[in-house]
Design goal:
mainly alpha, Glycerol uptake facilitator protein, globular, transmembrane helix, Channel protein, major intrinsic protein family
Amino acid sequence: MKNISKALKAEFFGTLFLVLLGSIAALESGALIYAALGFGGTLALMAYIFGGHYNPAVSIGMFVSKRINKNELITYIAAQFVGALVASFFLALMYGFGQNIAANVVSSNVPGSDFIQLFNGLLIEAVLTFVFVLNILNITKNKENASIAPLVIGFGLVILIVVGGNLTGTSVNPVRSLAPAIFQTNALSQVWVYILGPSLGGLLAGLFYNRL
């Protein structure tokens, strides 16, 4: 019980700081590379401190690859969502309720219009998340990699944000998109893209990893 309690605290605080600090970096800099470094750097730092997931898509991949059980999956995701929600509340206090707090929306750079454009955004998020989660599953499979894993994971996120940032914002994390959208309501209509896309990507990464 103590281990699961410690893990849930890690998921809560790690997700809170990931969403809070990464979003502030994106909002204050206005530059994609700084947003990427903000999220990627914070993820690496939190991984060194806590060693958690901070992302339902990662937890799904871990569950499918049999690294965690069903109860852990559910409680981890709950803790991640609460952490992201608290972070988003602080962001709303800082920047204004209903204002831009770095919630994800599909860019006009994505081909198509209306539903087709959103569906294309979903596919982009699924592919980016697949790569992200597969990288995590591979680098964390050996305990010998513990000292370098956070850097590899954080750098991987930096690359993916640079690649997809001008398309979907590169969420690759359902709670990182859902929680801010609750306070930045203009993003709510597209939040399904960022729940389904990353969740599918995490699921496929876990299935693919099992076949390696």
